[in-house]
Amino acid sequence: MTNGWPRAKRKAARRPAHDGASWSPRELKTLKALAKSGTPTTQVAKKLGRTAAAVQQKAMRASISFRAAKRKGVRRKK
Question: What CA–CA distance (Å, rounded) separates 24 from 27?
């Protein structure tokens, strides 16, 4: 049932180019290197053309830890 008001059109969220695609060996290697260097997941996601959630999930499934870099004090300063 409508109330007589026109519906507002919503734009769909823009998705990265690799959204839903399989991870290549090169991307995994880059993910490991960036995690080891302490790069934040949001920056890793931008570099790889993936969402931050996809990067975190892949890191977890591949046993890649971003926290190890934090503990060692390797984290980049702003």
Answer: 5
Note the pLDDT tens digit of each residue in 34-77: 999 999 999 999 999 999 999 999 999 999 998 866 655 555 55
The token pair at 28 is 């995994």
Is residue 78 in a domain? no
Q: Quick check: is 2 in a domain? A: no
Find the Cα–Cα–Cα–Cα dihedral 67, 25, 29, 14, rounded to 10°. -60
Quote the domain boundaries for residue 44. 25-72
Closest Cα partner for 15 from 60, 56, 45?
45
Assess contact for 18 and 50: CB atoms under 8 A.
yes
pTM above 0.90, yes or no: no
Token readout for 66 is 């971003």
